[in-house]
Design goal:
The complex is a heterodimer of chains A (240) and B (709).
Chain A (H helix, E strand, L loop, with lengths): L7 H17 L4 H8 L3 H13 L3 E2 L7 E2 L1 H24 L4 H11 L5 H16 L4 H10 L5 H5 L2 E2 L8 E7 L6 H6 L7 E7 L5 E6 L2 E6 H4 L2 E5 L9 H4 L1
Antiparallel strand pairs in A: 1-2, 3-8, 4-5, 4-8, 5-6, 6-7
Chain B lengths: L3 E8 L5 H9 L3 E5 L6 E9 L2 E7 L11 H12 L4 E7 L3 H11 L6 E6 L1 H6 L2 E3 L1 H8 L3 E3 L8 H13 L13 H15 L11 H10 L2 H4 L8 H15 L6 H17 E3 L7 H9 L5 H19 L1 H21 L6 H19 L2 H17 L1 H14 L8 H7 L3 H7 L6 H10 L9 H11 L2 H28 L10 E4 L7 H35 L10 H10 L4 H21 L1 H13 L6 H12 L3 H9 L9 H9 L5 H13 L4 H11 L2 H29 L1
Parallel strand pairs in B: 1-4, 1-5, 5-6, 6-8
Antiparallel strand pairs in B: 2-3, 3-4, 7-9
Classes of the chains: A alpha+beta (240), B alpha/beta (709).
């Protein structure tokens, strides 16, 4: 296939070039640098690589233009971006900027098949009459989910000494997950990181009124909502 | 009417279960081992009114699954033998974790009562219980005790008596897991009940249904359930999706949910004093920088206790066994059964006594370990040392046995019992003989001063010890990557709060271990001493090169001058030499010397090595006989040293020490390793492996060394 894979940063460049050409008719290196928020030499480097792959035409001191293949490729990328942005904006109800930025990150890793199904899902929910109830539900609930309720989850081993947290979930990669669960490390448990052992590998965690020691790499599989500050009061562990 | 009831004590580790057990049964205990595992099985008799009750102390467990030998053993005991009542001991200061086990015990279809132990601790932590609510929730009576102070045991016995003599067995309530899970449990229970051939057990089908859903290894592998496995797996997957949880933690999640619900109603925190002294001590003791020095200090103290404080007792025992042999010799009718007499005095008293004199060391050591375990420091020591030991494939707790190994290998091997992971424990046992024990010290202190200049003496000694440690660490790595591969078990360990153990429990613990040592190691050592004695004396030589008897008798007739005494001694020594040379040991030594010649050993060293097998220090006394050194009773080493000088090169001497360090663990070690590993194969492997390593290492050192010296 002629669509030989290019790196995600090159995809970003190609996308930017296509957009600049659409707006201005031609793309100077300076414009690209401004838009991508990078230094000139990086741009030169990138467009030389794109030119080598036959996606753009480039001579020094003349604006960049897209080849036929480049135009096609850029169109695919921009289509994907638009579809993803649409999904984030209209279904997940993210803000315009956030939708754009998230789409930029996701678009490079999603394959064609997944992409078209995404589009089908978005369109189905947005247009089908039997999805009316769902649309209402999304309209009211999505905006109420604040950013920090989900994204603010860290691995247990990255907590500060003395910091507390509530277990959000335990990854199924954790060896002996059952043993940890038997000892009370299940979702919703309050715990406090008490310290690290000499030579680093072990750490101790206060759970349910007693200390457990475990290996750091096991602790890295346990995800917690860190508590703000260091609560002196452990009463929640009983009341929870 | 008298009837024996059986009551099982169950509870988390460190919940004070053993204290309650000791309170109930007193000294009427029977300590044994569960077959095949090193989990102790304790039982005892207690009289409640007219009832005779056998109390079984189950090992401390967090859950009734099969993820550790303790859990398997506890479940087997409850499943295979009829139990009339479960006494579930709960650390009242930590109800949530402790009640987790309760939820599982309640499903076994056995009457139960809850004991909220350490009620004073809970009070100090500000926990207030509404016990009637909890009693109603679980459907079982609850009593409060303070085990360490003996408070509440009478009440406990009273309630226990009532339950046992009640006309009908009242079972705990069956607990609700929520709509989806309950439905699945019901489905599976029905399937188990309609199995063909029918499945029958003392334990209700519902328990097995729950364990199947939990994915418990032991239960899933039970033969009768094979046809149900496919269904179980689908059910679990469906439930995990519906409840939005990991498959493995479905049941633990809902159990902890259940407990939170129950506690919300029944437990209140009234007091704001949350910080415990325990935490403050810990901040200091397990500190990143201070932890290690503190640990080494504590170990030094234990060593001091073991090898210094017990020295007077060791001396006393030495004197005692000497005196005992003297008395027997004196009162034995002369000329009658002389062979039996010398077997008794020299073989048995000499051999078994030689090991028994170390008993005070062992008793003190066990006392020290019992104290460390009882206070909860042992878990901290493992926590502090683990980072270092883990690099060599060992466990943090391996460190203590290894240190003890510098004293004596036998108690060191027994100290490995505190290592939970079976593979780590076996690895530690296998390498322990490489830690140069105290009995090897006489060998070094005999040889080093003869063959090495004074400024090198300490260096040589240090090198020998270091070689032992390095070989031990290398051996551990090797074993962990071959025989005990994949034993890197999940490491999660509770650091229990510091508690002062009761004096009584310390003594009981010490006594149990000492008894085990005496009983098991004693019998094998006795047998080995007899065999070695026979090797050393048989066949009896009757034709000597000189007429020793006549000469000695002639000398004795003369005036007992110093001169004559000395001559008598040297004559006796010469006779002993001839006897030994003629004996089996001497012959085996000659045979061995062909094999050991490439290591630079002559026949004398070879036969002395046979003595070293009985006890390492016997190497020296055997050599003494072989060099015809008169046993002057004091400082015999110096005359032996004079004899040996010039016989060997420093390289040979070094090789002898090296071989003694690595090769053949002494008979006491072999006995205790056999006991603690429960495997003839591993015992043999250790024996053969160490001897082979010793041979190869010494061969290389000797042959390479000859190129330079």
């Amino acid at each position: 296939m002629q669509n030989e894979p290019i790196s995600s940063s090159l995809e970003d460049y190609l996308e930017a070039i296509a957009e600049i050409i659409e707006n201005k008719g031609h793309a100077h290196t300076k414009d690209i640098a401004d838009r991508m928020n990078v230094k000139m030499p990086s741009v030169t480097n990138a467009i030389q690589m794109l030119a080598a792959k036959g996606l753009i035409r480039y001579q020094s001191h003349t604006p960049v233009t897209l080849t036929v293949r480049g135009t096609e490729r850029a169109a695919v990328i921009r289509l994907r971006h638009a579809a993803l942005k649409n999904f984030f904006r209209t279904l997940l109800k993210l803000e315009e900027d956030e939708s754009n930025q998230t789409a930029c990150k996701v678009e490079h890793i999603v394959g064609e098949k997944v992409m078209s199904r995404f589009v089908t899902l978005t369109e189905a929910i947005m247009n089908r009459t039997d999805c009316e109830g769902l649309r209402d539900y999304l309209n009211t609930t999505m905006p109420t989910i604040s950013a920090d309720s989900q994204e603010d989850v860290v691995a247990l081993d990255t907590l500060e000494v003395g910091q507390s947290g509530i277990v959000a979930h335990v990854s199924s990669n954790l060896r002996g997950i059952k043993k940890f669960a038997d000892l009370g490390l299940v979702s919703g448990t309050l715990l406090t990181l008490e310290g690290h052992a000499p030579f680093g590998d072990l750490l101790r965690v206060r759970v349910m009124g007693s200390s457990l020691s475990m290996r750091s790499r096991d602790a890295a599989q346990i995800w917690v909502h860190p508590a703000r500050g260091i609560p002196e009061d452990h009463s929640r562990e009983i009341i929870l | 009417m008298k009837q024996t009831f059986r009551v099982a004590l169950a509870g988390n580790p460190n919940c004070g279960k053993t204290t309650i057990f000791n309170l109930l049964t007193g000294a009427r205990q029977h300590v044994g081992n569960y077959p095949g595992v090193t989990v102790e099985r304790k039982s005892g008799i207690v009289h409640v009114g007219v009832l005779e009750v056998e109390v079984i102390d189950l090992p401390g467990i967090y859950s009734l699954s099969s993820s550790s030998p303790e859990e398997k053993v506890a479940f087997k005991e409850l499943m295979d033998t009829p139990v009339d009542l479960i006494l579930n001991i709960v650390d009242a200061s930590n109800p949530q974790r402790n009640l987790y086990l309760t939820t599982q015990l309640a499903e076994l279809g056995i009457p139960m009562m809850l004991v909220f132990n350490m009620a004073d601790d809970a009070y100090r932590r500000g926990l207030k219980f509404n016990l009637p609510v909890l009693e109603h929730y679980f459907g079982i009576p609850i009593v409060r005790t303070v085990g360490a102070k003996g408070i509440g045991t009478e009440h406990l016995k009273h309630v226990m008596g009532n339950l046992l003599s009640a006309p009908e067995r009242k079972l705990p309530n069956s607990l609700r897991y929520g709509t989806h899970l309950d439905q699945a449990i019901q489905e599976l229970t029905a399937r188990i009940e309609s199995l063909n051939p029918p499945f029958s057990s003392r334990i209700p089908a519902r328990y097995f249904a729950i364990k199947l859903l939990e994915g418990d290894d032991g239960v899933c592998r039970m033969k009768p359930f094979t046809p149900l496995m496919e269904e179980t797996v689908t059910l679990r997957e469906k439930l995990a999706i519906r409840l939005g949880a990991e498959i493995e933690t479905l049941l633990p999640d809902s159990r902890y949910g259940m407990i939170s619900g129950a506690c919300r109603e029944a437990v209140r925190i009234t007091n704001e004093r949350r910080r415990q002294i325990s935490d403050d001590i810990d901040r200091f003791i397990t500190n990143r920088y201070l932890g290690l020095p503190i640990f080494l200090g504590v170990m030094f103290l234990i060593f001091f206790l073991t090898f210094f404080c017990s020295q007077p007792l060791v001396n006393f025992l030495e004197w005692f066994f000497g005196a005992l042999a003297d008395v027997i010799n004196r009162f034995w009718p002369t000329g009658q059964l002389d062979f039996v007499r010398s077997l008794l005095t020299e073989g048995i008293i000499g051999g078994v006594g030689g090991v028994l004199v170390f008993l005070p060391n062992i008793v003190f050591l066990f006392l020290g370990i019992a104290f460390l375990e009882g206070t909860g420091y042992m878990a901290r020591a493992a926590y502090v040392m683990d980072g270092f030991m883990h690099r060599f494939g060992l466990h943090g707790k391996s460190f203590i046995p290894m240190l003890l190994g510098f004293g004596c290998t036998v108690p060191a091997v027994m100290a490995t019992r505190s290592i939970e992971s079976e593979k780590d424990r076996l690895t530690t046992i296998m390498i322990l003989p490489l830690m140069s024990c105290g009995a090897r010290l006489p060998i070094y202190s005999l040889l080093i001063p003869i063959f090495f200049a004074e400024k090198f003496q300490a260096l040589v000694m240090w090198t020998i010890y270091l070689i032992g440690v390095l070989l031990a660490l290398a051996g551990a790595r090797l074993l962990k990557s071959t025989l005990f591969k994949g034993g890197d078990e999940v490491y999660v360990m509770e650091l229990p709060p510091y508690r002062m153990p009761t004096f009584r429990s310390l003594l009981l613990h010490m006594w149990e271990r000492t008894l085990l040592y005496l009983r098991k190691a004693g019998t094998l050592i006795l047998a080995a001493s007899i065999v070695l004695y026979l090797l050393n004396t048989l066949p009896v030589k009757t034709q000597f090169s000189k007429d020793y008897e006549g000469k000695i008798a002639a000398l004795e007739k003369k005036m007992p001058s110093q001169e004559a005494k000395k001559e008598i001694r040297s004559l006796e020594a010469e006779r002993n030499f001839e006897k030994l040379e003629y004996s089996m040991a001497g012959r085996i030594g000659r045979g061995l010397s062909y094999v050991l010649h490439p290591l630079g050993f002559d026949w004398r060293v070879s036969s002395a090595l046979i003595g070293a097998f009985a006890a390492k220090e016997l190497f020296v006394s055997q050599l003494g006989i072989l060099f015809s050194v008169a046993d002057s009773g004091d400082g015999d080493a110096s005359s032996l040293q004079a004899q040996m000088k010039g016989q060997y090169t420093p390289l040979q001497a070094f090789c002898i020490m090296l071989f003694c360090l690595i090769s053949i663990p002494c008979i006491g070690t072999v006995a205790v390793v056999r006991r603690e590993t429960g495997s003839n194969f591993l015992t043999f492997l250790q024996f053969a492996g160490l001897t082979l390593t010793a041979y190869l290492v010494t061969l290389i050192v000797y042959q390479a060394g000859r190129l330079f010296f």
